[in-house]
Amino acid sequence: EGLNAHFQERIDAEEKIEPKDWMPEKYRKNLIRQISQHAHSEVIGMQPEGNWITRAPTLHRKAVLLAKVQDEAGHGLYLYSSAETMGITREELIESLHDGSAKYAQIFNYPTLSWADMGAIGWLVDGAAIVNQVSLQRTSYGPYARSMVRICKEESFHQRQGYHILMTLMEGSTEQKAMAQDAVNRFWWPSLMMFGPHDADSAHSAQSMKWKVKRQTNDELRQKFVDQSVEQAEAIGLTLPDPDLVWNEERGHFDFGEIDWAEFDRVVSGSGHCNRERVAHHRRAHDEGSWVRDAICAYEEKKRSREVA
Amino acid sequence: EGLNAHFQERIDAEEKIEPKDWMPEKYRKNLIRQISQHAHSEVIGMQPEGNWITRAPTLHRKAVLLAKVQDEAGHGLYLYSSAETMGITREELIESLHDGSAKYAQIFNYPTLSWADMGAIGWLVDGAAIVNQVSLQRTSYGPYARSMVRICKEESFHQRQGYHILMTLMEGSTEQKAMAQDAVNRFWWPSLMMFGPHDADSAHSAQSMKWKVKRQTNDELRQKFVDQSVEQAEAIGLTLPDPDLVWNEERGHFDFGEIDWAEFDRVVSGSGHCNRERVAHHRRAHDEGSWVRDAICAYEEKKRSREVA
Amino acid sequence: MKERDIDQTISVYALRLGDDALILGHRLSEWCSNGPFLEEDLALTNVALDYVGRARNFLNYAAQLRGNGSTEDSLAYQRDCRDFTNFLMHELPRGDFAFTLARQYLLDEYEALFLAELLKSKDSDLAGIAAKSAKETSYHLRRSREWMLRLGGGTDESHRRLQLALDELTGYTTELFEMDDLERDLCEIGVAVDRSALFDRWFSAVSKTFAEANVTLPPASWAVKGGRIGFHTEHLGHLLAELQYVQRAYPGCRW
Amino acid sequence: MKERDIDQTISVYALRLGDDALILGHRLSEWCSNGPFLEEDLALTNVALDYVGRARNFLNYAAQLRGNGSTEDSLAYQRDCRDFTNFLMHELPRGDFAFTLARQYLLDEYEALFLAELLKSKDSDLAGIAAKSAKETSYHLRRSREWMLRLGGGTDESHRRLQLALDELTGYTTELFEMDDLERDLCEIGVAVDRSALFDRWFSAVSKTFAEANVTLPPASWAVKGGRIGFHTEHLGHLLAELQYVQRAYPGCRW
């Protein structure tokens, strides 16, 4: 009890919790869940964009996309390391991904169907991620907060690059404009879903706010994202696919339509276009790589025994 | 001795040798070698053309190409059956293909690099094959001769289809014409090599002629092919890549340049673009299919035992 | 609907059926020289050929109604991923032999029922294509059904692979039986088939076969759909890159 | 040679080097999300990125000399298989991890020697690109060499796979060291590298590594060549279908 109270005092005083500090078991579990979900999202997120690296329409765009996906791998690494500070191994994290007990962002279960999707993902998906991550820079767990600082710097590049892809398309041919609008039509609502259920329906929210694992609620963050996106869309002639989107003078925010939570549930429960494939892809690569990992272990082992001898 | 003499008498009298007839061991071996090489050529020949089925430029051409490759599979089946009449099994034939002891036509070690290659293969490669096969319709071994009759009918379709592909290209854009000419440049000499070494250098020829396994010599058949090809090339504006090609009034045939036998030997000895891949492809498909073949056996076995019970 | 509108609607309908045939035919044609033995190579190529033929018939009719210089080839080679309207099941990679044959069997049972209805279409062109196709499909079905029994009743390995294929495929069957307004409208005037009405017969047929083969088509706890509105899997784009390369690289040529 | 002819010859030379980098970069980029563990995914993507950058530098220079509105992108996206001049080894499918790393190591040793010479080219653009590339390659080489030791000295399985990869690759190394007239001419005026002169040093370097890794590069009893004259394997066409699809499907657009 005393430990718990002291822990909460530290949180309230905006102290960062560090790996060796005492923490409630639920806090630990909650964070492992959140960080691992975040890590897996970076890693699984390599697939929908990786799908277009070999088809990028210019060498410049190809280089930028490659660099971006590389950054995502890097983010995955930071985040796995953060999670590992809580006493879970990478192998365990990967196992949970494969057996379905760990999640990743649902948006990566949507397929990438045109080059414009690289723009929409950069602009909207990375955009939504940043809104969330900026807020998480002040999360109470030290290693996680520090990961977020590093990640945020890179993500804002990604968002600008995505936006630039769409801008270029919107300045192009009729077909290109249609391609850009179509991508935004498909990714807008799933991006809003990225912030999670409404605050009232959010299972983990209240406790997470108290522990300052989360610093702003789902709905606050979502509103922020909507507000910033409307202006950006208008600037390049894109229409956001929501007839209810309108400026609310009184609130000082944009009102927007209700999210189709049935669709969200459908995707969560396995009916997204790519649910099975994303995990199967990861599992295949992991399985195909097992002989390589074994080889390194054996090699290092031999080296050590030679050094001892 | 008496058997041998009697056998040769039958051959000389143009009687067909049938599976149950006595035959010299060397005749049997020679024929197995020749029929299996022919069968394997049909089967391996599916690969270079199969390489363009998914990229055929019109649906009509795709259907024609599919039908052609299907015919090749069919020819492979007839020929394996002919070989099997001489007491060798399909599995043994395939094993010899995989271990390199059985050959297939060297021309299939050349890669198909453009759509025009489908034209060149049909016109030249099938064209050369027909010249050979027409002659083999009168070969002394009955089952083989009958296979040839069936096969020749279909092959002449294939040749016309190939020629038609080239004709269409030659009526097309500058790029299409160049594509057609390039394909002919690459496939002309290898087609001439299909008839094998000069008669003087041919290891098996004399005995094969005596047994009427072969009815015309390599050089006779090659000359026939050259003569017919020159006119066909001219008709659609293609140039055969041989500066020495010229009409010889006295011989009543076209003279042509010397084949680059060093190149032929290079390809035979493993330096063709596709030697390793053709066999590896066949082996992979065969290995991947082993569980299917096992399943049929097990299923038939179970059915039989149910019927007995 | 006005005459002109009806024609355009039928054109879209024929396009859908053509896309189904084209894309499945493509996947089947990938088996060429990759079959488990030569007879099967020949048989799979043969089915592929039937589907390419069917695609040509439907696309040709769609092009004719569409006008504006459309041809079977412009429809096959000059539309991008989002314009294709085939069911998602058809575009899934060929997988192993069990996957290809399980998909084929599920679709053969579906096609047999579908074509038997399309035969009665008031649109005589569609009815004519259906007549020709139905004969092919009855042959395909005999073959693919036999393979279900062989694989299900063969070895442990073949049984395992077949069951795995069905686990993967089940969620893609849902959209085969879902109608949209366009098809409902055409259905009302006796042109299109009410696919939703085929489900019970289909399910009972496949259930019977799978019971005999000792495997199960898992209940649809998930369903991926969108083919008819061009919402595809990531596989189709790669397929089209290959299918369309020559036409795209040398535009405006005759071949 | 006349000034103008020299420029055009150098343009072809730069194009060759650009094609090598572009095609190998493509194969490496296919590893994205397919590596054996995340660090390696990152590392392979990084090498791919270096090669794409190198391709851009060479192709850009080739385009500049070529004129007529050529750009790095028109060269990468608007030529067909027969116009590409990369070595055949670069276009072979990625294979397993052992194959990709063995190819990379063979090429890294080659590139290290080649770039060290190109650094001294009288053509300052080529020398400049070489300088930047040489730094990258020395990093790549350290990595790929280490992997040869790890795989050769790891498990029986990794040793077997590495040896298999070398058996497959050996015949493709010959053309790395064969000169044609064009390169000989440029060599004479101090622009190009005499690749034939690199063989001994290359062979001694790889032999040393392979001895340490307990594998062998089999003697070249066969040699497949033709990349520099556009006589490719069947793999390149499929690679290009993917690489060029978007540009081909929507011609004349900015991206």
UniProtKB/TrEMBL annotation, chains C, D:
Organism superkingdom: Bacteria
Name of the protein in its database record: 1,2-phenylacetyl-CoA epoxidase, subunit C
Gene Ontology CC: one annotated term: cytosol
Native organism: Zhongshania aliphaticivorans
Any one biological process term the GO annotation gives: phenylacetate catabolic process
